[in-house]
Every structure is written in structure tokens, then in C-alpha cells.
Design goal:
The chain is an alpha/beta fold. The protein has 9 helices and 7 strands, in the order E-H-E-H-H-H-E-H-E-H-E-H-E-H-E-H.
């Protein structure tokens, strides 16, 4: 997209280890990450993702669940995604950041893995910040087309966490709802489970590319108003022809911090 407005200081946590397919599902398709990198490579600063310690994963997932992921031979790639989410959240405490990571995480619950998700990256990251005393509270906005049931399962009962999954499938109403909710947020950090499958050219979606820029801007404005941090991590989004431009638009909005 010509005339990108992403700040050169925008940090994106990523690893080329995420490039190859790791499973037989749409989230693990070859070329998905490349489609994003091609669009944003010249306008962001990449930082190498690191693996999450097992203790951080076990802080939100049962030991039996962790062992199941190991038996499926998905632990290594999933722990890299979780570690990338933690790094992104740490950066987000002081400046906007994005975790270009996979496998996605928002369907992974305490003891189950659904929807191509194995470990809940967002929950692991927020729990890490909380346990280290870096935040008192947080807000999670999940803009994936599909409800982030795993995140709600893990964090939904904690009084220090608020989670919002927009419910409308009507574009105007969806955007109005997100803008209204974000205008009221006042927390230490805002995390966005940034799925892009709600795009009109993706998975039976209804949003336009420009809408992701608006959402990023509203998140940035909420963070600036409350003196908090903000970050996003990749969830869904599968049409490689538009995925990179949708991520770019979101980052442009988020960078207005």
C-alpha cells in the first residue's frame, strides 16, 4: 500500500521459524506469514521472537494439556508463539508493538486446544505481566471473526481483566460498538487479539481494510488517554491477497499512539 504511515519505531516480534507449515490446517498454511512480511517489511523494525519458559505456559494451562501438545509435536512452535506474545506485551508497556506470531491462541483454554490454537498466547502474556507486577489490570479486545472462548475461559473470572469480543456482524454497528467501548477503557495495558478473518474478502467477513486502521487508532487513543500501553498479536486471517494490507492498516492506526 503506497504512502504507509507506520512509524519506523513500530516494533514487530517475529521469527522466520514461523514461515514453514507446522500442521494440516489453514492457520499453518505456507505463505501466510510471508504475505504479511512482504507488505510491512520496509516500515517496521523486526525483533526475533524467543521461546516462552514452560513455567509461563503452565501458569495458564493444565500440565496435562501441555503434555498433549508435546505429544502432538507442536510444543516448540507453540512455545515460540507464546514467547513472542510475552515479548510483544513487554514492549507494549511503553510503546505500541505487534506480535507476528503463530500458531494463534484465542481458542486455547485451560485444558483444551481448539480452532488451530494450542497455547493461549494473549492469556500467557497478560498473566506474565500481572505476576511480575508490571500491570494492575488489562483490557483485551478480540477482533477475530470467531469468539475468543479460550481467552474468556482462562482470564474471564479475574477481576483485573476485561475482555471484549464485538458481537455484531453488521459493519457500521460493529465499528460503533468497538469505538464506544474503547472510549471508556482505562487500564494499564490494552492487548488486541488481532484476527483479520472478519475482512469482507476473507472468511465470510464484513469489514473493509480501512476499518482495521480505525480500530488500531481507537486502541491507540484509549491507551494515550489512560496513560497505558498497547499491543496486538496475530490470530486469524487467511486470504493471503489481503491479509498483509489488513495487518498494515491496523499497525498504521496503532502507531498513532
Amino acid at each position: 500500500m503506497a504512502g504507509s504511515r507506520i512509524s519506523p519505531k513500530m516494533k514487530v516480534v517475529f521469527s522466520e521459524i514461523f514461515y514453514p507449515g507446522y500442521a494440516d490446517n489453514i492457520a499453518a498454511d505456507d505463505g501466510r506469514m510471508e504475505a504479511i512480511v512482504r507488505v510491512i517489511a520496509n516500515t517496521v523494525d523486526f525483533f526475533e521472537a524467543d521461546y516462552a519458559p514452560e513455567a509461563d505456559i503452565s501458569a495458564v494451562h493444565d500440565p496435562e494439556h501441555v503434555e498433549r501438545i508435546k505429544r502432538k509435536k507442536l510444543y516448540t512452535i507453540s512455545s515460540l508463539a507464546a514467547g513472542g506474545a510475552i515479548q510483544t506485551a513487554r514492549i507494549g508497556l511503553t510503546e505500541p508493538a505487534f506480535g507476528l506470531i503463530r500458531p494463534p491462541g484465542h481458542h486455547a483454554s485451560v485444558n483444551s486446544s481448539l480452532g488451530f490454537c494450542y497455547f493461549n498466547n494473549m492469556a500467557i502474556a497478560m498473566m506474565k505481566l500481572k505476576k511480575e507486577g508490571l500491570i494492575e489490570n488489562c483490557f483485551i479486545l478480540d477482533i477475530d471473526l470467531h469468539y475468543g472462548d479460550g481467552t474468556v475461559d482462562i482470564l474471564g473470572d479475574y477481576d483485573w481483566t476485561a475482555i471484549y469480543n464485538p458481537a455484531s456482524i453488521i459493519r457500521r454497528k460493529y465499528l460503533e460498538d468497538v469505538k464506544r467501548v474503547m472510549s471508556r477503557v482505562n487500564v494499564d495495558i490494552i492487548g488486541v487479539s488481532a484476527g483479520f478473518d472478519a475482512h469482507i474478502k476473507d472468511w465470510n467477513g464484513f469489514l473493509e481494510t480501512e476499518d482495521y486502521r480505525k480500530i488500531g487508532k481507537w486502541v491507540s487513543q484509549a491507551a494515550r488517554r489512560s496513560g497505558s500501553g498497547c499491543f496486538g498479536i496475530l490470530e486469524g486471517g487467511y486470504n493471503k491477497k489481503v491479509l498483509g494490507y489488513n495487518v498494515e492498516a491496523f499497525l498504521e492506526g496503532l502507531a498513532l499512539y
